[in-house]
Amino acid sequence: MSLTHLKLMVPLNKADAFAALQMDILRLQGFKSSKGSAVDVGLGPILHAFPKATFPVGAVHEFLASQCEEAAATSGFVAGLLSALMGPFGTALWISASRTLFPPALKTFGIQPDRFVFVDLQKEKDVLWAMDEALKCGALTAVVGEVHDISFKASRRLQLAVEQSQVTGFVLRNNARKPGTTACVSRWQITPLPSDPVDDLPGVGFPQWKVELLRIRNGKPGVWDLQWTNGRFQQVYKPHSVSHEQSKKVG
Amino acid sequence: MAKRFVSIWFRHLTTDWFTIGQPHLKKLPFVLRANSRGRMVITAANAEAESKGIRSGMVLADARAIITTLEVQDDKPDLIERLLKRLAEWCIRFTPFVAIDPPDGLLFDVTGCPHLWGGDVPYLEEIVKKLSGRGYDVRAAMADTVGTAWAVARFGRAPLVVAKGQHIEALLPLPPESLRLEVDAVERLHKLGLHRIGQFINMPRASLRRRFGPHFILRLDMALGQAEEMIEPVQPIVPYQERLPCMEPIVTGPGIEIALQQLLETLCLRLRQEQKGLRTAVFMGYRVDGKVEKVDIATNRPSHSVRHLFKLFEIKLPTIEPALGIELFVLEAPKVEDHFAQQEKMWEGSGGLEDTRVSELIDRLTGKLGMHTIRRYVPDEHYWPERSFKLATSLHEKPATLWRADKLRPLQLLSTPERIEVTAPIPDYPPMLFRHNGKIHKIVKADGPERIEQEWWLQQGQHRDYYRVEDEAGHRYWLFRLGHYDDKTYQWFIHGFFA
């Protein structure tokens, strides 16, 4: 089919042919053309890093974190994405073998915590099995799984599952022994940044992160500073300098 | 539908059982003994011993006087009950309705069963053949009433199948003992010269009642089918049950899957027609060696979807050990609830928690990983962080109150707060620095304190003063001081990590 496609496209013009071929490649790689149902996840300028400038749903995203603080930042960023993806009626599964997520805090990121189903397991192997099973269920919006290590083969299984069901998967890798190669569509690393004071008042400001898109299939990796403000992502432009003066709000 | 019953009489139940274990006893006169008031009394004798005039109830010494080479073994207490129960369960292959009839029999309600074996006579022959094949000396009879079947099995002559509606004629030549009467009633009948049921069956009821009591009339009516007789099955009858006997014992995985698929299809068809859905199901395989292999599943909402239920079972099928082969498969649905098709359509594809696909997924997960692994939370009205949410009882439970968002809570919460060492200006300033896991964090920004009191009606203890702090690296923590600063016993803890 693609051959005839090619023949048809060649006489037109080179740029068009390239674009068409790129589309074909995307389709073969499992990017379904989202028929006008692209979800606005509110990532703003980051969207240009993605193919077709839309956040890839129906794909598995991988997040690396090396310590608890980063894991908290990562879960915050993921929760921000989920709040946009889930909308008011979506359902998501949170599968983990060592969950420290505090459900009521999800409300801060605009998610009703009761729309989450938590699956708390003993073994990592079961987490992967449960994720595989859950990603096949098209009624879910997203599946979040916490695992330390994931093999290429396992990640391929997850990718194949989501290509069928169009569920979005998030693999949170806390303290991964080595990042390795995976079949996930992207790899992110979220690190917390010092917050900006709000209206020059002392105290802790809005959560702010350095969002590193380390790898993205058919996209452009990059680094951004984001802040979670009033229920949405906001890009921050500032020189990386940390003010050391004590600013405390005590009441 | 007219009822049909089979009564089975084990003539030498216990001695047969001993003979099965020790075949050399078959040709020998053999008795079982038990101690009764300081004497050894015979409790059972085999056919060989009985032919020499030894009866149960005899003193052992008397029996030894008749046959010096008598083989004697100790009787086991409760042996009869255990044997009968086991045999009854084994006989469920013939009819689902098997009852124990102590001391030496079984009762089947075979209504609607014999035609599966090709009629009454082959059915009864098959029962006798199977039981004799196991080494038991049995007599079985079939009739329209329990009483008649019982009487014919023990006292009747061939043919032992009493045709429909012929049970009164069959009773006429039998002795009064066959009516299961009390001993003195039987004695009195014989004294009066009434040796056949036919001699008194047409006597006026009033005079029979006056002479022999109400029990006599009841037994007579039961045998004649004028009074209902309740028998209690060894296994409660599950109304939603499908059975699949196999021509050859099944030993392979694919064979078991085919059996399961067939059973599910018939059961689900029936459930769909009755607008029901099952909540629990048990799949059993009766093995050739008499053991029963069993797997069970449960669902979150009533279901009659073959595909879904098969998937649930599929996870557990490998635990079935066919051993020498499985000859009968049974699928039961002990718990069934109303399930309307329209209702399902309404939720289909909505993509929320109400979607059937979600509950099917949860069923699959719980089937493999256990019920306790799935958790969903709804808010609870407590300020104490660990109590601010509670487990939802079902997938569909709606939160009774709103989730609070006015107080910031950390995304990652340690299950137990960890001790930290701090430097903090008193009285209630946030710490300037703290040490956690050997690492020193210098605090740059802080919010607080937020005091959360213990709920004294639930738990005694000190209050917590929470601070939200940020260190130089931009990491955000939730710290608290337990107790008043002027107590000198206060302690600092880290409880969570903010995003």
TrEMBL record, chain B:
Residues 19-151 form the UmuC domain. Signal peptide: none annotated. CDD domains: PolY_like. This is DNA polymerase Y family protein. It comes from Chryseolinea lacunae. It holds the Pfam family IMS. Keywords: DNA damage. It comes from the Bacteria.
